[in-house]
Structures are given as C-alpha cells and as structure tokens.
Design a protein that fits this description.
This protein has 164 residues and is an alpha/beta fold. Bound molecules: NADP nicotinamide-adenine-dinucleotide phosphate.
C-alpha cells in the first residue's frame, strides 16, 4: 500500500489555527478533491470535526482515543493509527491518503511514501504545524508554481516529494 500525506503548508510550516484552515485557495481544494476522490482518507478526530461533514466519494478513517466516538455508516474509526493501517492492508487498499492534522502528520510522516504539498506563500500565525520535510529523507520530484489571483489569496506551488 502506498501512503501519501497531503497538506497545504505555509512557509513557516503553519497548517491551521483554531481548528480551521487559514487561507482561501480554491486551486488547493480542487487538487485535494482530484487526488483523494475514490480513495480512503485517514485523519485525526479534530480534522474530521473541522470538515463539518464527510467528504463525498471518499471513505473516512478517523483516529480517536474516545471509545464512544460514533462513526457514520460507511466510514470507520480506530483507537490507534496502527490499527487503521492494519485494516487498510487487510482489505488491500492501494493508496491511503493521510489528510491531517498536525498530530497525525507528525506521527505518520515516517510511514509515508509520498508527500503532496501545496506550499502557500505566506507566514501566518497558527497553532498547528506540518513536520519538517528533511532533505536527507525526501526528494522533490515535481513542482508547479502559480501566482495569487481572485480565487487564491497567496502565491502557491504544488510540490511532490518521494521518499529517498
Ligand atoms: N493545511 C492543511 O492541509 C490541513 C489539513 C488538515 C488539518 N489542518 C488543520 O489542522 C488542525 C487540526 O490538527 P490537530 O493537530 O489539532 O488535530 P488532528 O491531528 O486533526 O486530530 C487530533 C486528534 O486525533 C486523535 N489522535 C491523534 N493521535 C492519536 C493516536 N496516536 N491514537 C489515537 N488517537 C489519536 C485524538 O483524538 P481524540 O481527542 O478524539 O482522542 C486527537 O485529539 C486544524 O486547524 C485543521 O484546520 C490543516
């Protein structure tokens, strides 16, 4: 199974504040939808709550320590990340997208094969961060840069990293 972390990350590695995203980047949302549609997406309970509702056409795997967490039909919750990964291997998931947030990225970056990062050209205040992408471990294999426009409030770049 290929494990892919997907995130939009500011220059100072901020990814969120007060359990919300902090920028309007329509192109990032589109790319997220294109890459993840039809796939399994793994996330922390806080990120799931920040979505408001499950995203269409994706199976949600929610990580929580709360044994009373109520999972919606067609989706799954797990008490550990390892249990979720064992489940995915068992049902032969080909690609697993890990969609955040900070706690989950930090605990899974070492398990990942690929990072799909939207670099956001700003240094906002925030309370949640993406872990450091170490040059010794990751190689940039794709980069496409775009200027801000009326639908995207900052310059941004789509960047793929693969594990060395
Ligand atoms: N920019 C981006 O691409 C992006 C993407 C996703 C999210 N975000 C942002 O990130 C922020 C949320 O991230 P976060 O770090 O606060 O929270 P998070 O990673 O989404 O969720 C944390 C929760 O996950 C559960 N959890 C974490 N590790 C666990 C483990 N090892 N075993 C069992 N459960 C575990 C716990 O849930 P319980 O408390 O229920 O036990 C914990 O409170 C928001 O601001 C969101 O907007 C940004």
């Amino acid at each position: 199974m290929k494990i892919i972390l997907i995130a939009a990350v500011a220059e100072n590695r901020v990814i969120g504040k007060d359990n919300q995203l902090i920028w309007k980047l329509s192109a990032d949302l589109k790319r997220f939808k294109n890459l993840t549609s039809g796939h399994y997406i793994l996330m922390g309970r806080k990120t799931f709550e920040s979505l408001g509702r499950p995203l269409p056409n994706r199976t949600h795997l929610i990580i929580t320590r709360n044994p009373d967490f109520e999972t919606l039909e067609g989706h799954y919750s797990f008490r550990t990340i390892e249990d979720a990964i064992i489940f995915c291997n068992k049902i032969e998931v080909e690609k697993l997208f890990i969609i955040g947030g900070g706690e989950i990225y930090r605990q899974t970056i070492d398990l990942a094969d690929e990072l799909e990062i939207t670099e956001v050209n700003t240094e906002p205040e925030g309370d949640t961060f993406f872990p450091e992408i170490k040059d010794s471990l990751w190689i940039e294999t794709y980069r496409e840069e775009f200027p801000a426009d009326e639908k995207n409030e900052f310059d941004y770049a789509f960047v793929t990293y693969e594990k060395k």
